[in-house]
Amino acid sequence: MAFGDVKSAKGLGELNTFLADNSYITGYTPSKADLSVFDALGKAPAAEYVNIARWYRHISSFSAQERNSWSGSAVPQVSGASGTTAAAPKKEDDDDVDLFGSDEEEDAEAERIKEERLKAYAEKKSKKPVLIAKSSILLDVKPWDDETDMKEMEKNVRTIEMDGLVWGASKLIPLAYGINKLQIMCVIEDDKVSVDELTEKIEAFEDVVQSVDIAAFNKI
C-alpha cells in the first residue's frame, strides 16, 4: 500500500480515506507498515483529517521499544516533505509533540483528577464541625410543703453534674397555700444526657423534692 507524499494535501487525503475503513495500514495489528507511515508524517495531522488523527493517537500510545518490535514490512514509496522514502524506524524525537494525546493518557489524567477531588472533599468534610444535638428544658421541681427550704432545694438540684448538662436561670413560682415550686432551666446534649435519668437524680433528694415535671422542652 503506497500513499506517496503523506505531507501533501493529496497524500493526506488518500491516507485519511483509507483509514476510514481500516484500523491499521496492513492487517489487524500494528506493524512496521504503520511505523513507516507514522515516521513519514512526523507529527500529528491537522484536525480535519479525523481518521488519521485517530490512528496517529493510537500509534503514539505505544512506546518506541514496542514499535521497534513490530513485524511486517514498511510501506514502499511513502514519503515525507523531502520526498525521501521512509526507512527503518527512527529514534523517538523528544521534541515531537502529540497534539492529540492518547486515549489511555486522557483516561489516566481524568482518573487522577477525580481521585484528587474526592480526597479534597473527604478532607474538607472531616474538618467540618460536627453538629451537636441539644435541648433546652424547663423543669418544675415541687416541694413537699411550705416549710421546705427552697434555697436548699435549688442548691441540691445544682449539685447534679453530668457530662453535657448545663444549668441555667431559675425562679420560684407560687402554687397555693404559700407553697412555691422551683422552676429551673437547663440545656442538655441529647446524646449524653437522658431526661429520665436527670429527673430521677433530682427526685432522689426525697427529703425536699416531691416531684419533677417538664414544663417546656425545645430542641436547639
Would you spell out the secondary-structure blueprint of this structure?
Elements: H1 9-19, H2 32-41, H3 50-60, H4 64-68, H5 103-127, E1 134-143, H6 150-158, E2 165-176, E3 179-189, H7 195-203, E4 209-219
Helix pairs in contact: 1-3
Family: Belongs to the EF-1-beta/EF-1-delta family.
Keywords: Elongation factor, Protein biosynthesis
Organism: Polypedilum vanderplanki
Major sheet = 4 strands, antiparallel
Strand content: 15-25%
Number of strands: 4
Cα shape: rod-shaped
**How are the strands ordered across the major sheet?**
2-3-1-4
SSE-based structural type: alpha+beta
The percent range for helix content is 25-40%
List the helices and strands in order: HHHHHEHEEHE
The low-confidence runs, each spanning 5 or more residues with pLDDT under 50, are 81-99
- What Rg is obtained from the alpha carbons, in whole angstroms? 42 Å
Q: Give the overall pLDDT as a whole number.
A: 83
SS field, number of helical segments:
7
**What distance separates the N and C termini?**
80 Å
Region (Disordered): 72-111
Keywords: Elongation factor, Protein biosynthesis
Domain Translation elongation factor EF1B beta/delta subunit guanine nucleotide exchange: 134-220
Biased composition (Acidic residues): 93-109
Please provide a written account of the structure.
This protein has 220 residues and is an alpha+beta fold. The chain has helices at 9-19, 32-41, 50-60, 64-68, 103-127, 150-158, 195-203, and strands spanning 134-143, 165-176, 179-189, 209-219. The chain has a 4-stranded antiparallel beta sheet, covered by helices on one side. A hairpin with a 2-residue loop joins strand 2 and strand 3. Helix 1 packs across helix 3. The chain is rod-shaped and about 120 Å long. This is Elongation factor 1-beta. One of its GO terms (molecular function) is translation elongation factor activity. Residues 99-125 form the Elongation factor 1 beta central acidic region eukaryote domain.
